[in-house]
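User: Please predict the structure of the protein below. I'd like the answer in structure-token form so I can feed it into my own downstream comparison script.

Assistant: Understood. Taking the following sequence of 120 residues as input:
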Amino acid sequence: MRWTAVLLCVGMVALAGCRSYEIQRPTTPAGTACMVPCDAQALRCSTDARLDAESSHAMCMAGQERLQDRCSGYASDSERHRCESANGGTACLAPSPNTSACTQRWELCALECGGRMIER
């Protein structure tokens, strides 16, 4: 029953769109103890997201190096750029981990432990 109420509450906030909210941690000793695995899981999740982003960036950079080697035989910059474009050359952006799923899981966990959702 409590889980259904939490999902309903989070769903209503998601549908509201423009409203923002924050989750307040539980303040009771039982709630604080309940949060220990929530916090540990959130840390693992965000670490995994960061490592995934770094790995994707490294693979992109390696692909860029292979592409530059493949197209290095062209004498002019314009021919080299044409070769790179024809072979899928794109810029490798700095790694940016997506931790939104981590945040959502932590928020649900906090609510299950007795935390509160506060509209801002």
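That's the full token string. The first strand starts at residue 21 and ends at 24.
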